[in-house]
UniProtKB/TrEMBL annotation:
<dbReference type="GO" id="GO:0008967">
    <property type="term" value="F:phosphoglycolate phosphatase activity"/>
</dbReference>
<protein>
    <recommendedName>
        <fullName>Haloacid dehalogenase</fullName>
    </recommendedName>
</protein>
<dbReference type="InterPro" id="IPR023214">
    <property type="entry name" value="HAD_sf"/>
</dbReference>
<dbReference type="Pfam" id="PF12710">
    <property type="entry name" value="HAD"/>
</dbReference>
<dbReference type="InterPro" id="IPR050155">
    <property type="entry name" value="HAD-like_hydrolase_sf"/>
</dbReference>
<dbReference type="InterPro" id="IPR023198">
    <property type="entry name" value="PGP-like_dom2"/>
</dbReference>
<dbReference type="InterPro" id="IPR036412">
    <property type="entry name" value="HAD-like_sf"/>
</dbReference>
<dbReference type="GO" id="GO:0006281">
    <property type="term" value="P:DNA repair"/>
</dbReference>
Length: 249
């Protein structure tokens, strides 16, 4: 099977799709807020499906602090430093979600498939989380999009396409692109670019809500590797499975 016969750019969300961070990111935000403002954080913006830029900006506004560029940059830099300092705690309190290593590894062996991330995490935090849990091996992080690329998540897909074009020296069409995530914002991001979206009900959004939100396919989790292959590869799943069988012989 040639590259163009089953070309897929699979863009994975990270939190609650690939892994659960055990609330350590919230702790990092609290400490960073106190460092930057000199007072405790009394409220935090809802993090679900949002970019770090938007979470930080909304959190500052909740405390009547103007998220001007200088303050916002100082805040998110402090967040990154605080999470880096908690890497060992992240490894203890967090965990990889069921089936993730198998799904990433299997898809990495399918000719034509390329995998990266489209995440609300700023890049330094995405790399940290994936490194802590050993999930970076099959992901081309130079071809992804991150929560410090834009404040609104729906603006991230064009960034991923641009980086993928530079990294792989080819364009990926919307029909060749699949976003995998656990929130309504993952769905909205895919729909904004006419890409396909596979939703997983491993976060705070129910399977019914994900269906109603417009996901092309909803999986309960990533534990069934064949179901993941079928979902992200669609009509090419059978051919891909045949190729994998030949590779294993």
């Amino acid at each position: 099977m040639q590259f163009d016969e089953c070309a897929r750019l699979i863009l994975w969300d990270i939190d609650h799709t690939l892994l659960d961070g055990g609330g350590v990111s919230r702790d990092a935000y609290r400490s960073a807020f106190t460092r930057v403002t000199g007072r405790p954080m009394s409220r935090m913006a809802d993090m679900t499906g949002k970019t770090d830029l938007l979470i930080a900006s909304e959190t500052l506004r909740l405390h009547d602090i103007d998220p001007d560029p200088g303050t916002l940059t100082t805040f998110i830099t402090a967040v990154a430093e605080e999470l880096e300092a908690r890497a060992d705690l992240l490894a203890v309190r967090g965990h990889v979600l069921p089936g993730v290593p198998e799904a990433l590894g299997t898809l990495s062996r399918v000719p034509g498939v390329r995998q990266s991330v489209l995440t609300g995490n700023m890049r330094i935090l995405a790399e940290l989380k994936l490194s802590v849990f050993g999930l970076g091996e099959h992901l081309d992080l130079d071809a992804g999009a991150y929560g410090d690329d834009a404040e609104e998540r729906v603006a991230l897909l064009p960034s991923a396409w641009k980086r993928a074009q530079l990294h792989y020296r080819r364009d990926f069409s919307a029909t060749e692109t699949v976003i995998v995530g656990d929130t309504l914002m993952d769905i909205a991001t895919a729909k904004a670019g006419d890409a396909r979206v596979v939703a997983v009900a491993t976060g705070s959004v129910s399977a019914d809500e994900l269906h109603r939100g417009g996901a092309d396919i909803v999986l309960p989790d990533l534990a069934d590797t064949q179901a993941v292959l079928d979902a992200v590869l669609g009509a090419n799943a059978g051919e891909a499975s045949g190729s994998l069988t030949k590779l294993s012989e």
